[in-house]
Design brief:
heterodimer; A: about 230 residues; mainly alpha; elongated; B: alpha/beta; Rossmann fold; 4-stranded antiparallel sheet
């Protein structure tokens, strides 16, 4: 398939934004690591609080992992655009020749690479620690794969919307949680179905459908929010 | 050529200017003058396509410039009052990771304002004037014909101002346009002035 030079340069620009984000996150490694450590530590508190009974833990494991992943994914969000907004980099990004929606998409993808993927990798060992039945682990991880992408898209949109607002960091969870409820329900549903011997497929398909809707809509909304934030 | 007709813009709730018109030909320099708060920075952001225009038209070669903000961005090199310098990156990385730059020009751009020796230093070690030089060096990376500068010489030493003057002259000689808000006279001759407020 041949592409016009303009398409290629747009893709190149979006890649440059993504590369810049990931480089910056690695340079400030503590921020990215904080989300991962929060995830692991918060999930580890449950066996201590509820008791070590394998049946109880195994039953609540999908919910615990999903809620902790949702909270951990929120942690780096208020700096996702906030740092660039405060030091003038956001102006430069918007003048880079990329549509604002593409900037938002690149940022959401960067959030997923830096936060979502480590959460996904840590979720497997955590599931084993919480005695989730072995059959349910693939369903949990498949749900989290789709779910972390969705959380990055929804979260970056909310982060763009609260940009420049006073107490934006407090508003952010209030915006994200209602939007994340369906993700949470079907994500946990997939793992529960698998541990109960049912097929997780319908739950995963619904998560996929939500992702298919969020992929175009979230960057568009976030892009518009970024434009209005710098005005 | 850049031409503005009947521009008006708000900052917050306040109308900072209205009925503003000017035109700058290729190679021209327009200096925005006026007291603090008279809307110089707001006008620069409007010209860059970052601020919202309440009324009026901005024409680039007789077509409406702000119709297509992404297309307009290719024409604009903007240095605002913030330097957009990432303290965690080195001087060289700050330029190299600027999206939209042409490849392989970073070392030349660093030399333009004498930052070559500082290339590997983390940007957090730079002084305010050096950060300003880094922000201005970005202009040397971009082929944009329209430079919009907000107090560009703030914090620069005499030598850097002279080098910046050479940058401006080269940009003008290539047919570029400069619109700058400044209280300190720019190190170039033959400038037009627009008084606000």
């Amino acid at each position: 398939m041949s592409r016009s030079p303009e398409d290629r340069s747009l893709a190149g620009l979006a890649l440059a934004v993504l590369l810049r984000e990931v480089t910056l996150s690695l340079r400030h490694g503590a921020d990215s690591l904080a989300a991962l450590l929060f995830f692991v530590l918060a999930a580890s508190l449950f066996p201590l609080a509820i008791g070590p009974s394998p049946e109880t833990l195994g039953r609540i494991a999908p919910g615990v992992i999903w809620v902790c992943a949702l909270l951990a994914a929120l942690l780096p969000l208020d700096r996702l655009f906030g740092a660039d907004f405060e030091d003038g980099s956001l102006d430069q990004l918007l003048l880079s020749g990329l549509p604002s929606g593409a900037i938002a998409a690149a940022k959401a993808l960067a959030h997923w690479v830096v936060t979502g993927v480590p959460l996904l990798l840590a979720a497997g060992p955590l599931a084993v620690m919480l005695h989730l039945p072995e059959d349910a682990i693939p369903a949990l991880l498949a749900g989290l794969l789709l779910g972390t992408l969705l959380l990055s898209l929804l979260g970056s949109t909310a982060a763009a919307i609260v940009l420049g607002a006073r107490r934006g960091g407090v508003l952010l969870p209030l915006l994200v949680f209602p939007l994340a409820v369906p993700v949470l329900i079907f994500g946990v549903g997939a793992a529960d179905a698998a541990s109960g011997g049912l097929s997780p497929r319908p739950h995963l398909l619904l998560l996929g459908a939500m992702l298919a809707a969020a992929l175009p809509l979230c960057p568009l909304a976030a892009g518009a929010a970024l434009r209005s934030a710098v005005e | 050529m850049l031409r503005a007709e009947g521009l008006a813009a708000f900052r917050g709730e306040r109308l900072v200017f209205r009925d503003l018109g000017f035109s700058v030909a290729a190679g021209g320099v327009l200096v925005l003058a006026g007291p603090n708060g008279s809307g110089k920075s707001t006008l620069l952001r409007v010209l860059a396509g970052l601020g919202r225009l309440a009324a009026g038209r901005l024409l680039w070669h007789d077509t409406d410039a702000l119709d297509d903000l992404t297309g307009h961005a290719h024409r604009v090199g903007y240095v605002g009052h913030l330097d957009a310098v990432k303290p965690g990156l080195t001087v060289e990385e700050n330029l190299r990771l600027t999206p939209g730059r042409p490849k392989g020009e970073v070392s030349r751009a660093l030399g333009v304002l004498g930052l070559g020796e500082l290339a590997d230093l983390p940007a957090r070690m730079l002084s305010a004037g050096q950060k300003r030089r880094l922000a201005l060096s970005r202009l040397a990376l971009s082929p944009a014909p329209l430079w919009l500068l907000d107090e560009p010489t703030l914090g620069l030493d005499i030598q850097a101002i002279a080098r910046f003057g050479d940058m401006l002259s080269a940009h003008r000689a290539a047919g570029g346009i400069v619109v700058a808000a400044t209280h300190i006279p720019l190190p170039v001759s033959d400038v037009a002035e627009l008084r606000l407020g």
